[in-house]
Design a protein that fits this description.
There is one protein chain. The protein is built from 16 helices and 17 strands. It is an alpha+beta fold and 578 residues long. Among the domains are: 70-194, Beta-Lactamase (2-Layer Sandwich); 326-378; 449-572, Heat Shock Protein 90 (2-Layer Sandwich). The strands form four sheets. The chain has a five-stranded antiparallel beta sheet with strand order 2-1-5-4-3. It has a five-stranded antiparallel beta sheet with strand order 7-6-10-9-8. The radius of gyration is 53 Å and the shape is elongated. It is a multi-pass membrane protein. Its main location: membrane. It is found in: Cell membrane.
Length: 578
Amino acid sequence: MNSIRYKIFFSTLVFLIIPFILTFNWMNKKLENVIEQKIGSAAQDSLYLVNFNIELFLEDMLQSSLSIATNPTITKLLKEPEAFSPYEKLRLNDAVLNRLHSSYFTNTDVTLFDRKGNWLSTSYLTENLLQEYIGATWYRQMMSKPYQQKWFFNHKERLYLDRKPIITLVKTITELQSSQNIGMVAFSVNETDIRGYLKGLKGEVYLVDQAGTVVSSPTKAMVGQSLSKESYMHSVSAGRNGQEIIEKNGRKWIVNYDTVQMNGWKIVQVVPYDTVFKEIYDIRHTNIILFILILIVFLLITMSIAYGISKPLKLLRKRMRELEDKGFHSTLSVSGPQEIASLIETYNKMVKEIRGLLIRVKEEYEQKEDMRFRALQAQINPHFILNTLNNIKWMAYIRNDGEVGDMLSNLGGILEGSVGRGSSLIPLRQELSYIENYVGLMKMKFPDLTLEFDIAEEWMEQEVIQIMLQPIIENSLMHGIEPSNEAGRIMLQAQGDSGQFMLEVRDNGVGMDEERLKLIRERLAADATAAPPERIGIKNVHDRIRLQYGDDFGIRIESMKDNGTRVQCILPLKRREG
């Protein structure tokens, strides 16, 4: 992935192809929005024409109802029904009610009601349907006020035995002199008469009343169904006209709507988004195919150029590796393109300089080894010092000076532990022995000092780093116990779990405040190669543990002012025999 070939490929992808794709997508979105607005405007114009025709249709129904309501004979019939014989009523029905003609509707049903429960209708009306009609709340409310009218869509509950859906205009017949209602006319037309005006629109088209019920639709099965649960009906009910884009069943739809001013009904057009933008999608699909073909050709050309550049470089790298195996005792032949030949010439010069540097480094190394050998010869043999200390110790014991003998014995133990046995990794048992010698020596200064071990036998062979505990205990003595007025107490505890071994050193010293503890933790967290502003022994121990076992291990410190300090050494759980 870091080769020139891939860099050229991804640079082309990032700086040319991706911006082109983003620009192409942005232009498509802008074009889609413009066309969407144009189509929305055209849809509103179509809805306006349909709305205009439906207004004329309903206006004609209203005019026909007014013609009946203002007919003197009809008015007399409603006021004095007993003055007309059945034959005269039949003639009146045939002469007035059945003679209404209009170019908007093919068939009508007209029913007259007076205030005494009498009725006259062009269709047969059963007694139970009549009682339901005149017993309705809306009927009583309309008869109680003059000049009332109401539009109905009769689908399930009908006035007539004919089960076809009808659109009904109910209007009170009011006497002008007294402003009292003398009756009511119900003027009805078939839903199919208004359906024809909706067929000219694309998609699903509905004429919906205020309750959300479909009054008419080119889709016959939808007539009488409720659209109140559709998500777009909230916007349709709230606005006069407009357009909305919705998502339904994983598809996008365009909803156009307009309001019939005569009765507040809504004309709703629902068109699939894909259908409206089919031509745009076809053009976009063609453009995408062309773009992919151009992209493939472009990528092939780019890869060819990248391959032509990287192939000589790979060959150069191969020859360089062969030259390295020969110890830089030969040079490469100058060949290839001008740029590659220039690199080979530069490399040959570099090889000569490297060969000279290797010779000088070898000579300097030999000189350093000679100097180190001379320095080792000048050093005092530590075993000679140990033997001398042992001789002095036994002389002290022979002269009954046990205190001096004990001090020399402890000092000898410390020196022997620091000299080591060829390895910096030792069993915990050996480290504890070294610590006992060190604390024994320190008791000369701290006579009340006690050292306690809470370590099970099973942990005595745990692998630890040599002289790991001495700097920690020295800190406890110098900075914790010495400033305190109490008898010093140091406790060592060990436990292991989940592949980790923890050795804890706890004292009863003066502890540390938050600021000092934070500073020490920051120094422990610093890089092992960075020298701290103030040298501290536990930093050395922490870095040795991390260098030996990894960054997951090391030292953790917990302390509170006047409440002692706890230092935890975290090591991998590993057994090491002494």
